[in-house]
């Protein structure tokens, strides 16, 4: 065999697996049809957070009492900056891969068999094969010419009006961002509330903030069709219709499993995903699947983690997945983050009692911790500014079997939003410093 491992797809899962294998002196071929870094670095996670950061900075100045802000945005100039920033990231990843001896082939990979792929009319063989082909947006035939995440994040001007079909995390994140930048935003969600599946107590502060931003939220409503003649016309099942300059469809993503010969392997599938065991092995020996293509949750950091597990097992290190402390983050305003099992005895602390949060002109949010009868941490949920930067402490607590008092007795710097983590933990044993719980 030419290679120890061939990897199809260079998103977070693919390039992480390549680096980990390269660090152990394995001979690796990494194949990418588009751009190194995949969907996340180029068209999803990174550019969306750049837009969110821009919108937050703009709205922060506009809404801060005493500040007279006259801000103009040249989105074309910003797009040049964004792509330059992405180029630095993806270029760094490519250089890092090559520094570990990873061979990178730019082209479309077609699977020949479990040990052979064809790229640019050349065939390559490997002892192992990792499928890391990610996911693509769900689309519908009756919704013509709508935008998806790639197109909406590449706009050269801010739309006057934007209808977002789907009130999940992508719809809420981008809807919030464009509303802050001046668009008239409508979010249409088929379920009875935005962010379905997320604890309602964590979602309520976000709903309130969206109302303050004048985002029109329509729930329990199905979109029948979308047509475009100049402006878009969005027809609802209720018989009503809405017109908008742009329409963004964000109703989910599906695993990318077609068009590259995967069917030749005869892999066992699970509801459209490639079925894997707890070592990320598929039903065919020597073939692994990681990231979005291998099942929920479809998160970049889950792909990184999967890559570690697959690389370990390829190298003879017995390692198994354990997703119990998987952190979830929604870059809403304020941010929502949660991890572990949100069950057991709950204790909370309000963001309105956190000094650092108030200095940021934010009184919305909550810190919630869930413990067993001994006070050991089962999980936690935080809705607060920068909660994405705090949730890892709780994931570590769940992973390590820590007690709420372990967190409560840990010195947290002041003033920080992270003090809310300490105080919710203190609330679990009845001693929060800056808030008196109702008896």
Please describe the topology of this protein:
Layout lengths: L2 E6 L3 H12 L4 E5 L5 H6 L1 H19 L11 H25 L3 E4 L2 E5 L2 E4 L2 E10 L3 E3 L11 H4 L8 E5 L3 H12 L3 E5 L11 H13 L3 E3 L4 E7 L1 E6 L4 E4 L1 E4 L3 E3 L13 E2 L2 E2 L12 E3 L10 H15 L13 E3 L4 E6 L4 E6 L4 H5 L6 E6 L5 E8 L6 H10 L3 H5 L10 H10 L11
Brief summary:
With 439 residues, the protein is an alpha/beta fold. It contains twelve helices and 23 strands.
List keywords for this structure.
Enolase-like, domain 1, 439 residues, FAD/NAD(P)-binding domain, globular, 23 strands, 7-stranded mixed β-sheet, 3 domains
What does this structure look like?
With 439 residues, this protein is of the alpha/beta class. It has three domains: 3-136 and 254-314, 3-Layer(bba) Sandwich (FAD/NAD(P)-binding domain); 149-251, 3-Layer(bba) Sandwich (FAD/NAD(P)-binding domain); 328-428, Enolase-like, domain 1. Helices cover 31% and strands 25% of the residues. The protein contains twelve helices and 23 strands. It has helices at residues 12-23, 38-43, 45-63, 75-99, 149-152, 169-180, 200-212, 300-314, 355-359, 391-400, 404-408, 419-428, and strands spanning 3-8, 28-32, 103-106, 109-113, 116-119, 122-131, 135-137, 161-165, 184-188, 216-218, 223-229, 231-236, 241-244, 246-249, 253-255, 269-270, 273-274, 287-289, 328-330, 335-340, 345-350, 366-371, 377-384. The strands form six sheets. Strands 1, 2, 3, 4, 5, 6 and 18 form a seven-stranded mixed beta sheet that branches. Strand 4 (109-113) and strand 5 form a beta hairpin. Helix 1 (12-23) packs parallel to helix 8 (300-314). The chain is globular.
